[in-house]
Amino acid sequence: MNLNEYLSQLETLVNIDCGSYNPDGIKKVADYLCKWYEEINWHIKKHDILDQTPVLEISNHKDADYYDALFIGHMDTVFPDGTVKNRPFRMKDDICYGPGVNDMKNGVLAMLHIAKNLNEITNDKLNICMCYNPDEEIGSRYSEEILKQIGSKAKRIFVMESSQDGGSGHVFNRKGKVNYTISFHGISGHAGYVYESENASAIQEMARFIVEIYKLKDKDKETSINVGIVEGGSAVNTVAEYGRIELESRFNYKQERDRIVNAINKMVNDKPSVDGVKIKIDKFSEALPWKQSEEGLEYIKHVEKLANDMGMKFYEKKRGGLSDANHLSEVCPIILDGMGPCGSYAHSEKECMYISTVEPCINLFEKILDDLVE
User: Fold this and answer.
1) CA-based nearest residue to 133, from 18, 37, 14
2) Are strands 169-170 and 315-316 parallel, antiparallel or unpaired?
3) Residue range 140-171, pLDDT digits in tens
4) What whole-number distance in Å separates Cα of residue 343 and Cα of residue 161?
5) pLDDT confidence band for 51 (50 / 70 / 90)
6) Is pLDDT of 139 > 90?
7) Taking the CB of residue 311, how many other CB atoms lie within 10 A of it?
8) Residue 168 CB contacts under 8 Å (≥ 6 apart), including other chains
């Protein structure tokens, strides 16, 4: 592969602000990808979703009715506009830095270079799709159904999120999650006359609720709870009429999902500790855990042997995050995740990618795809 070309293209993509709520930035990333795939004569379908940001379905054979291999990556990042100006792409020794360089511009470009480096026989014999998602960082809330439609055509799916441990650690299972937005509605009043006039503090009830929520964590089962957003009140001398929290729980088992959901729903429906406060669930969403199928486990063993034959280590590295594997596992039994070049510190100012892991990633997929022809 041409590593210098890869790094030049990586700089181009990293230096685009393209958070999930920045459609213009995401479209700019999509335009570059379409241009580069057109240069190698691949066929592009655009499935426009919210704000006309596209899901890209890019294939080596036009109008294929199935895919021997489907690769997926996402074009959005978690970072706000202006991040690129503050810390643009840079390289030092073996490391690249910049917003989204690890999550997941490195994998997005690895897909392109896997396509560019296909040998002629493999390209001719296999139907291969490179799929790009514009809203993965907000749970693929607008793209999920389109992704499932595309994924249902695939015999196996490779999610190109970053690998770990120098490129050897991959992901074969993912946690599930539930998200709640819960509001608290009280009665306002002057804070100096709380014993003399009707009032009910939404914030007091919300504070009790938060403490109880954190009691639902279970370290042994790796079930987490995080209240990530808290807001409420209008003035320090006014009893709060309104409060709101947004929380997320992540878990490995459906039984844990049921325990968390049942407990939170009961807390909402029980009588509040502050008379006069009402509690309401404003928003709920979820993604079930992805557990590897028996067919998937067999294929993982096969890929591990291919990697070992190349002198590469290949094993599972557990992670707490979710990916498109969570919902694509509903339509395809064989999914391998964390298959991109290696990176660290996603979603932070220290986010980075290790340059020396790019070529091994591309080489492994050359072997994997050639093996599908044999």
Assistant:
1) 18
2) parallel
3) 989 999 999 999 999 999 999 999 999 999 99
4) 9
5) confident
6) no
7) 7
8) 312, 313, 314, 315, 317
Cis peptide before 353 (omega within 30 of 0): no
Residue-wise pLDDT for 243-295, tens only, equals 999 999 999 999 999 999 999 999 999 999 999 999 999 999 998 899 999 99
| Whether residue 50 has pLDDT greater than 80 | no
Express each pLDDT in 296-344 by its tens digit.
999 999 999 999 999 999 999 988 788 999 999 999 999 999 999 999 9
Give just the sign of the alpha carbon dihedral 39, 159, 52, 88. Answer: negative
- What's the rounded Cα separation, in Å, for the pair 197 and 261? 36
Of 218, 213, 227, residue with least CA distance to 256: 218
Instruction: Give the architecture-level CATH label for domain 182-287.
Output: 2-Layer Sandwich (3.30)
What span, in angstroms and rounded, lies between the C-alpha atoms of 342 and 361? 9
Residue of 171, 98, 168, 173 lying closest to 341 (CA atoms): 168
Domain boundaries, the chain: 3-174+290-373, 182-287
Output the pTM of the full model.
0.87
> Do the Cβ atoms of 102 and 353 come closer than 8 Å?
yes
CB 69 within 8 A of CB 154: yes
Same fold, 3-174+290-373 and 182-287: no
Q: Across all residues in the chain, what is the average pLDDT?
A: 96
Q: What is the pLDDT of residue 228?
A: 95
Q: Which of 304, 326, 299, 329 is nearest to 315 (CA)?
A: 304
> DSSP label at 355?
G
246-to-79, 118, 243, 284 alpha-carbon distances in Å = 19, 45, 11, 10
Q: Are 242 and 184 in contact (CB under 8 A)?
A: yes
Cα–Cα distance for residue pair 125/123, rounded to 1 Å: 6
Give the fold, CATH level 3, of 3-174+290-373.
Aminopeptidase (3.40.630)
**Beta carbons of 20 and 27 less than 8 angstroms apart:** no
Query: Crossing angle of helices 106-116/3-14, nearest 10°?
Result: 140
- The CA distances from residue 11 to 29, 71, 98, 142, 259, in Å, are 12, 22, 9, 28, 45
Look up residue 48 and give its two tokens.
């426009």
Tokens matching residue 207: 């504070």
